[in-house]
Design goal:
Blueprint lengths: L6 H13 L5 H6 L22
Length: about 50
């Protein structure tokens, strides 16, 4: 990550990065495949993140 960002902005970007992870395999197994995908998944290039 580039150096010319404020710390609060880096924290917001990190939160968006963690939200964009797939659903863990053990949760898919535990829910008998009713939960398969993360609806908050976001492509880093095609979707803009409004964090300032």
């Amino acid at each position: 990550m580039a150096a010319r960002k404020s710390s609060p902005r880096k924290i917001r970007l990190l939160k968006k990065t963690l939200q964009s992870t797939p659903v863990p395999a053990w949760i898919v197994l535990r829910t008998k495949r009713t939960v398969r995908s993360n609806p908050k998944r976001r492509a880093w290039r095609s979707t803009d993140v409004e964090v300032g």
